[in-house]
Amino acid sequence: MNVSKARVLVADPDADIRETLKIYFEHQGFEVQVVAQAGEIVKHARPWQPNAILVSTEFSDRDPYQICRDLLDDTLTGHIPLVMLLHLNERSMRLEALEAGVNDIVPKPFDIEELYLRVEAAIRLTTMREML
């Protein structure tokens, strides 16, 4: 799949994770924006229209599950695939993420290549649905 110029929004409070993902995805041909606070996710996603959003569960400023619901309920962002990065891979957290409408869940620490492939797959599926 040619993902050049695809856009990904990385939302994680950990500066090291944000920078690592930014470098990796840019190396793969993506345009990347990063946000450090959950409250900034919708503000960046609406005008920028990324092809996927990576959302960490480790935010303290807002409930990341509610952010996902807000994104999916918004007519401008409801089509964007959401990949949730879970620090703890507990069943209750996975269920809450799925109930919030995320497309995929990746536990931390994650394999960056696997994460990339999951994001690529989410974008591909969304693109295929839009073509129908």
Mean pLDDT: 93
Distance between the termini: 18 Å
- The name of the CATH architecture is 3-Layer(aba) Sandwich
CATH topology category name: Rossmann fold
CATH top level assignment: Alpha Beta
- Label the structural class: alpha/beta
Q: Please give the radius of gyration in angstroms.
A: 13 Å
* Unreliable segments of 5+ consecutive residues: none
Strand content: 15-25%
Helix and strand string, N-terminal first?
EHEHEHEHEH
- If strands are numbered along the chain, what order do they take across the biggest sheet? 2-1-3-4-5
Taken from the alpha-carbon principal axes, the silhouette is globular
Overall helicity: 40-55%
Task: Report on the architecture of this protein.
By secondary structure, this protein is α/β, with parallel strands linked by helices. It has a single domain (7-131), classed as Rossmann fold (3-Layer(aba) Sandwich), CATH 3.40.50.2300. It has helices at 15-27, 41-48, 64-73, 91-99, 112-131, and strands spanning 7-11, 31-35, 52-56, 82-86, 104-107. A 5-stranded parallel beta sheet has the order 2-1-3-4-5, with helices on both faces. Strand 1, helix 1 and strand 2 form a beta-alpha-beta unit. The longest helix has 20 residues, at 112-131. The relative contact order is 0.17. The mean pLDDT is 93.
